[in-house]
Amino acid sequence: MKKTRSRLLSLLLVGILIASVVPVQAAFSDTTPYRFDHVASCSIALTISSKGLATCTSNMILRDGVTAEMTVTLYKSTDKKSWDYVKSWDTSGLLALALEKSYYVMSGHYYKAVLSADIYNSSGSLVESITSTSNIHYY
To answer: What predicted TM-score, i.e. pTM, was given to this entire model?
Structure first.
C-alpha cells in the first residue's frame, strides 16, 4: 500500500514536471506574437456562417515610426493544395490597422484568408513584408 502510494506520487510529480515544460498554445491561434521587426502583433481569422457568409477579420499593430499597406485575400480550394483567388480587400495606415469584410462563398470548397502587408519607414522605404494565414475552413 505504501509502495503503491509512493509510485502514484512519483508518477504525479513526473506528470507535473512534463506539463510545466510543454509550451501552451495561445487561445487565439491566428495571432502572431512578435516574430516581426516592425509589427507588434497581427491576426487573421476566417469564419463561415451556415448560409455561406465568409467573414475575414484582421488586425495589425505597428511599432512606432512605420506605416503599412495591408491586404486580406480570400482563397478557395478543392484539395487544400492548389488555391484560387476569390476576393481581396486593402487598407493602409499607421499604429493600428483593422479590416473586417464579408463575402458569400460557394459550398463544396476549402477556404482560407491570407493577410499580407508591406511596412514602410518614415522615409517611405520598404523595411519589411509580412504574411499570416488563417485556419482553413470547409463549407
So the answer is: 0.74
Q: How far apart are CA 32 and CA 131, in angstroms?
A: 10
15 and 105 Cβ atoms separated by less than 8 Å: no
For residue 37, count other CB atoms closer than 10 A to its CB. 11
Question: What is d(CA 21, CA 24) in angstroms, rounded to the nearest whole number?
Answer: 9
The count of C-alpha atoms lying within 13 angstroms of the C-alpha of 98, restricted to the half-sphere facing its C-beta, is 2
- For the chain, strand residue ranges (E) read 31-33, 39-48, 53-62, 66-77, 84-94, 96-104, 110-121, 126-133, 137-138
Q: Are 61 and 41 in contact (CB under 8 A)?
A: yes
First CA to last CA distance, the chain: 56
Taking only the tens of pLDDT, the chain with its 139 residues reads 555 555 544 544 444 544 444 443 333 445 444 478 899 999 999 999 999 999 999 999 999 999 999 999 999 999 999 999 999 999 999 999 999 999 999 999 999 999 999 999 999 999 999 999 999 999 9
CA-based angle 4:5:10, to the nearest 5? Answer: 95
